[in-house]
Amino acid sequence: MAWSDETRLTTEQFELAGRLILNDLPVRLEAGPWWAYRPAQEVVDYPRALLSEWPPELVVAGLAHEAAEVRFTGKAGAMATARWIELHADHSVSAAALTLLVNVVNDMRVNRLQMARYPGIGRLFRRLYGRGVELEPMTDMPGIRDAAGAPLHHQFLDAHIHAWTERQWPGARAAPVLDRPAARAFEDTLPGVQRAAARDEVSGLLEELTEDVLPAYRLLVTAEQEARRQAAERARSATKAPDTSDPGTTPTEDEPEPQDASAEEAPDSPTGASASDEPAEADQHAPTATTRPLQSRRREGAPDAPEDRAPSSVTQGERRRWSRRQVRDRVLSSTGESWHPGLISYLRKGRGPQIDYEAFDYLTAVRKLDPLIRESIHGSGRRRGLAEIMDRRRHGAVDPWRRPRKQRRGDTGEIDLEHPERLITDPASAFLRGVRVAREDRQRDFASAILLDISGSMVQRGFPTKKFDRLVEAAVIFIEIHERLRIPYAVLSFSTEAVLHWRFEQSVWTAAGIPSEAAYRPRDHSQIVRTIYKLDHRETDDAGAMRRALTHIQPQAGLKSVIVITDGISSDPAQLRRVLTDLDRRNRNGPGGQATKVLAFGVGVLRTEFERAYMPRIDGRPLGACFGEIVHDSQLLPTLIRNAVDQRIRAA
User: Fold this and answer.
1) Helix residue ranges per DSSP H, 89-151
2) Which residues does 369 contact at the CB level (< 8 Å), separation at least 6?
3) Residue 469 CA neighbour count, 13 Å, CB half
4) How much is the pLDDT for 444?
5) Considering Cα of 335, then 338, then 341, then 347, what sign does the dihedral take?
6) Is 515 exposed, middle or buried (CB count within 10 Å of its CB: 0-12, 13-18, 19+)?
7) From the centroid of its chain, how far is CA 393?
8) Burial class (CB in 10 A: 0-12, 13-18, 19+), 15
């Protein structure tokens, strides 16, 4: 059966399958750019866009592989991998290249263990690997992966994936064509990779890689870098064109701080926190030599290094070094996204997508983000929507016109004056029963404020910036969830001073209950975004802004939340710490149902400074009133804000 003839899974069907496959594993399933396991967030990402393209067996195989990562690698394995990468990353091999090596071999390990536990999975894995699906996208080095330009270490990894597949399912996958250096390195390291993939623990796998694989792999990466450098020099000398790279680029959440020229290029996107993989229980019958001959792409007499390959970008020669903290954050929180530093030059020349925020159309933004909002409001196949949850809490049922917040027990003989018609229609139910007791689905009130950093680094007025685009999308999602659930909210922005754009007093709705999906009509909040864009964008005074937001939200009833989105460090961290400490004290001394919590999201900030500002510790104890999360990829910001609001309501 051809792929085009097969049925495709809907999102609901796939997520139901995901619940069965992940079972009791401590992770949740979320849509993302590609398959990835993110231990820090306890999330497994799946590529929703491919559900309409891939047949069911393939998507289930991909999910089964990620379940194997969770079960047999987990947080402990991810931390061991991060420490190993920190130890071995240097000017000759980047953290991204090391992550790729470990992930590829670790895939073999976890697949073997998964197939030993669930033998039926082998049939799905065979189809997945036979199709040549790249579960670990090789994005550590700019350039197109094709027959003529694959980097040497990518060829090397392809060869090992092919050898592992051949040991499991002979003939399932075509042999890759290799340059001579990659072919020699593959033959020298094949026994070492097999031993590494046969280890049951990540720590043992890393030991094998260090001893038997890493030296040859490092030489391939170094040879590729040198070849690209020489090709770039020849290209520049031939054209005498000026270097159009952007040396003044400021680091963002996706672009690490540039260091000296000898530092290695930053990893664009290590995918998954996986360490290396063991081969699927194949070592008993695996041959000790190459299972199929690997051809050399080059003719006899051709030079070993691929010097004729020109780099795909003028910026790919830039070398950058990541700090140990950045490496660990990337390995533990990777999502598979990549960010190319040359994009900043591309955007500043006006060739990238740009939104006119002076004429911003809020309703258009709502239509774009509606699937993400609707999933929270009306639910999906795996869980109830917030609309149903809030209606039950407010009214005791989904029906908004039924309002008993208490229930009665026993027979008192008094007529239920709220339903006198029952004397005729159903006399047995016309009398009140006992005393009122609180319902489990009792009323819960909420109020939320969003505090948006609009300092110069976030907005960069006049230039299209990814961070500000995502900031606006996050604000739209926040507003729409609260509008549709009829929850009071406020919108503030801050730079050197805080500005209130929407007050709690303006959150007035004429209709009772939560409107249906078809009946809802969004308000036009275009002016909020237009005003934010026109304001002065200067420094970051988040202490003053936080104080104003907390003062404004304090009179509101119920559980209160202040969501902060910032890309800078507080200009007065001591003052901000005092504000948060006072809030924590008020929460501890006040009623539990009226507590206020600060949820801070730092876009591309340094973790130590961000934690010092938004996650302070008093006498070694973290404050319960605040929580912070680093956002390394601004593309995820709207989803993170949606999830934060969603979880705050569900967990109440």
Assistant:
1) 95-117, 121-130
2) 473, 476, 477, 480, 638
3) 16
4) 65
5) negative
6) middle
7) 31
8) buried
Name the 3-class secondary structure at 351: coil
Half-sphere CA count of 127, side-chain side, radius 13 A? 16
Task: Find all residues with CB under 8 Å of 16, minimum gap 6, and list them.
Answer: 381, 382
Return the pLDDT at 96: 85
CB 167 within 8 A of CB 288: no
What torsion do the CA atoms of 49, 54, 57, 61 make, to the nearest 10 degrees?
-50
Please, what is the Cα angle at 285 between 284 and 287, to 5 degrees?
115
Give 409-429 as a DSSP string: ES----B-TT-TTHHHH-GGG
- Sole residue written with tokens 């999830």: 643
Question: Quick one: the chain helix, strand, coil %, rounded to 5?
Answer: 45, 10, 40
Q: How many other CB atoms sit within 10 Å of the CB of residue 651?
A: 7
Angle formed at CA 201 by CA 200 and CA 203, multiple of 5 degrees: 145
Rg (the chain; Cα; Å): 28
Q: What's the half-sphere exposure (Cβ side, CA atoms, 13 Å) at 303?
A: 8
Evaluate the CA torsion angle 579, 585, 590, 593 in order and state its sign: positive
> For residue 629, which amino acid is it?
E
**Which runs of consecutive H residues, i.e. helices, occur in 240-356?**
324-333, 342-348
CA distance linking residue 366 with residue 363, whole number of Å: 5
pLDDT at 149 (0 to 100): 63
d(CA 451, CA 571): 16
Burial (Cβ within 10 Å: 0-12, 13-18, ≥19) of residue 151? buried
Spell out, as residue ranges, where the chain has pLDDT lower than 50: 1-5, 143-148, 241-321, 335-352, 399-405, 409, 438-441
What pLDDT does residue 592 have?
A: 66
The C-alpha atoms of residue 128 and residue 433 are separated, in whole angstroms, by 62
SS3 600: strand
Report residue 122 as tokens: 């082998």
Enter the tokens of residue 562: 């202040």
Cβ atoms within 10 Å, residue 447: 24
Sequence-ordered strand ranges (E) for 335-473: 406-409, 435-438, 446-453
The pLDDT of residue 130 is 79
Output the pLDDT for position 397.
Answer: 55
pLDDT computed for residue 312 by the predictor: 32
H helices of 535-598, where? Answer: 542-553, 573-589
